[in-house]
């Protein structure tokens, strides 16, 4: 397959290099300094964890997508706020039937469909993490079994498993990229943003310091509440939480969820992934937080904790004091869970006595 990668950043580079190494023809569209770096060095990847392996892959590099250029597939991997800048060239190109958008998006596919028409569009999400250091892309590598679970979701707008989706998934698999067909990619993306945006905002609220977030209970409580609020918005809009396992964020007792989140942030792996992102420009985060705000207004569901975290996008906003634990925890769910467990134990006890 001839696959153009539109966007030569962290994840465009990572996916493109893997597909090229597996024998596909994968030119990358780049601009500015990145264009010059790719021409000089190829795609240089270095593992930030694991063995620290470094690879350099030669790829074709193009500067624009012309009207008459023909590819079997274009994969768009840019930041969400950059999407409007790539749509005109894609709309003007009449020789590429299939365009796969792999980026964060809480607002739904309307903007893309309006520009390209719904027949050409597929959605996906790049499940990986990394950052740029000069001309190198450093990426996080999970331990083996977790890597196999880390599947890249891809889907048609209507959720069908079409022949072209099968072909694209096949090409990804041959490149060693685990994939899964998603029957509702829009719900997947909305759920992902509902969780990840508060997570990144909480890092900002803790002064862009992941370890500090891990020990600042108030930021963790706001994070737990913001994620819950966002999932309530999705529910009100009729968008199923996808994957369903994330529904547990809605029912786990707040003290337990805050404590689990604290542990999650207190690891070198999380610090590397989210800490580095915290240095990145906040333009996409602001865009996505705005999109979630629009969803909450459309659903008529207030999101006070999410709004409070969003305030930390303002560079003038003071971070939540290190270690602060003043917000009272919502013990309601914990009490209900404890009562439920006690009633259950009593029932079991009475039954066993009556035998
Ligand atoms: N990085 C991660 O760890 C990670 C993890 C999971 C998901 N994601 C998501 O994946 C998506 C892509 O992230 P990323 O980290 O790969 O972003 P990135 O490193 O910022 O890459 C975006 C690339 O697209 C280029 N670009 C944007 N508009 C363009 C245009 N009109 N013409 C040509 N090139 C253009 C950018 O060029 P310039 O640099 O010149 O702007 C940049 O090279 C985002 O939605 C992100 O949230 C990222």
From TrEMBL:
Signal peptide: none annotated. The chain crosses the membrane at residues 332-349. GO terms for molecular function: 2-dehydropantoate 2-reductase activity. The keyword Transmembrane applies. It comes from the Bacteria. Residues 3-140 form the Ketopantoate reductase N-terminal domain. It is an enzyme of class 1 (oxidoreductase). Its EC number is 1.1.1.169. This is 2-dehydropantoate 2-reductase. It comes from uncultured Rubrobacteraceae bacterium.
